[in-house]
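Hi P.,

Sorry for the delay on this. The queue was packed all week, but I finally got your sequence through. Input first:
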Amino acid sequence: MTARYKPKLVKFMTYKNGVNYSSDHTFSMEELLDITPDHVCRWMNELTYGSPEPSDDMRPVHRRSSTLEFSKKAISTVMPRVNSTWDPVTQRDNPTRSDAVNKLIKRVKKFEVRREGAESKARRSVEFDEFTNLLLLVHDMMKLQFANISPNSQYPSTLLFQMHWSKNIHEEQDAPEQIVLGSMDPKMTSASDTAMVFASGSAAKTAFTPADARAMTSGFRLSLPSSP
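Then the structure:
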């Protein structure tokens, strides 16, 4: 069992048995075979709705369906009959591969589509340090050059940029001019201003290196006004 799945299994078994297991606890074959779809559903309902038996007017505002799917996979990987669909007649095989569990997750997805579920945390703003790392990644992938950046005479507050080097660029028409906008962030705006200076200057460089990326960003914090 991978390290990323074990914590989920421990939390589930702690809820099911009412015992605080340690993170390195090893569960026996008998304990795993005792798990039923009802155990899994009650735990997932508790996580998602805040109740093991949610009423019709309750909404899954505490967990996303993606979290439930990951938890389902974490439990499934340790089941003795991992590849067998749950048999409701014999009450055997893999409880995570049951209609009850699948319908629970499907219902949560339906509420998410209606904007009645937990908010997605998959998208967020890029942090400044992450942005500088992205600059270096772009350089490694497409050999970024300052010649690819030019002023935009139509909209002076923006830049024009062409991505000539990339695995998907095969013809000139595959690299149209793109407009680079500011990010409403003082540090990022400084980066954009610096790029415009390089692009419009007579002594513009021909190649953009990792050292250039660090140079463009290292002094921005110093140029910002100090906090009162």
